[in-house]
Amino acid sequence: MESCTEEISYVSQQEAIEIDDMLMGPLGFSVDQLMELAGLSVASAIGEVYSSSDYTRVLVICGPGNNGGDGLVAARHLHHFGYKPSICYPKRNTKPLFAALVTQLESLSIPFLSEEQLSVQLSSDYDIIVDAIFGFSFHGTPRLPFDSLIRKLVSVRNQQCTHQKAAVIISVDVPSGWHVEDGDIFGVGIKPDMLVSLTAPKLCAKMFFGTHHFIGGRFVPQSIIDKFKLKPPPYPGTSMCVRIGNLPQTNLSAQKGIFASSESLEEVEEDPIYQFQKWFSNALAAGIKEPHYMVLSTADIDAKPSSRMMSLEGVNKDGFVWQTNYGSRKAREILENPQASLLFYWGPLKRQVRVEGFVEQVSEEESEQYFSSLSRDIQIRPIVSKQSRPIHEREVLRQQYRELEEKYHDRTSIPRPKHWGGYRLIPEFFEFWQGEESQVHLKLRYSMEEIDGRRVWRIHRLVPPLAESASSL
Ligand SMILES: Cc1cc2nc3c(=O)[nH]c(=O)nc-3n(C[C@H](O)[C@H](O)[C@H](O)COP(=O)(O)O)c2cc1C
């Protein structure tokens, strides 16, 4: 499989809109043509990575706009490539173009399912889920029914984390729910395994750290390339799409139970958050169980430390977010002393990441948004949770849980209890530790420094001399 590792150019939302206007204006393209090219690129990229014999069952979730149309076209091509697509298209676009695409699919006996017909655990019914809900013109917050469909896709990714059999997610152009330029702002959105950028990658693609990034834009005329300073990759042969960047090698390392390649610390990101996301994606790709579990250490006003396991709920350019009880011991310690550290350990890759910084409570709005993204049964848990307090009657809690289940059984969402919400660690120090077979373990440190009033990351590489390697652990 060919790939392109040349420098990638990204476009803003405004530029993407201008490119579309130019294509469909002076350059004479029709929307049908662009949709056909997009859908074919998506289907071809899927075909390059996921064989129709191993990944036969495909669910294509289509939004109401052009991204949904791209999904409909992709479904038709996937059918002809030997896959078995089903479509969920809850808000059908009534324009003739979209109605014609639906007719084409119906004539191939491709089933259309309502949102209610989809099971809660999509992974048991499908091998591939194509997210064609929202594209580059989307802004704002997803509404019903797309918000709950996006939640289902997020829970597929959580299953991947917990090592259960999970479908792979392919996002068309922009992972739905992400900001077109800033990406997964709250860090709790869809984490696709594959992104197929169309025409040119949008800025949010910089935050994509899944395994397969493809671009489909072979038709883009030179005048657009020049005007928007695009750097289109060389497309091999007659392909409609090409991989951008290399496949991570860590899959193999993990399967063989050996160390990840030390090359992984040769090409490092300038921004440690990107470096973290890269390693996190590597951990997911390597099949590591629950890579989002971390140790959170806090200390009280007298600097007496305490540690506990936590679940990382999101990471983005602002920091690392987790959810907890605001009446817990850790919450009290954070109030007294906002310094904290996080520790991740991904054994099969022999990798450890330490993150230190100060902690702030996330906004009410962010906690609400996160809470509403959870499934109903998970929302009930924090209501009955009595962290860091003695529990006298376990049966009382069980009874309370049952009562809440009964009370909310016909509701899709439950109000967030005020004692439950998020914290964010804003990092000031990172250490990436890579174990090596030679025992000469590598460390990469990032520390935040102020230079001319600007906060910048300074990178230090620590490669111990051979003789000291035994004590370099
Ligand atoms: C793997 C694992 C993940 C956990 N994730 C969370 C979490 O995300 N939020 C939370 O409040 N507690 C979580 N806990 C429970 C905490 O470790 C801890 O017991 C609880 O938060 C009370 O801690 P504190 O008394 O130090 O405040 C988790 C425990 C384990 C073992």
UniProtKB/TrEMBL annotation:
One of its GO terms (molecular function) is NAD(P)HX epimerase activity. It is an enzyme of class 5 (isomerase). One of its GO terms (biological process) is pyridoxine biosynthetic process. Its cofactor is K(+); FMN. It holds the Pfam family PNP_phzG_C. InterPro entries: Pyridox_Oxase, Pyridox_Oxase_N, Pyridoxamine_oxidase_dimer_C, Split_barrel_FMN-bd, YjeF_N_dom, YjeF_N_dom_sf, YJEFN_prot_NAXE-like. Binds 1 potassium ion per subunit. HAMAP family: NADHX_epimerase (MF_01966), PdxH (MF_01629). Catalyzes the oxidation of either pyridoxine 5'-phosphate (PNP) or pyridoxamine 5'-phosphate (PMP) into pyridoxal 5'-phosphate (PLP). This is NAD(P)H-hydrate epimerase.
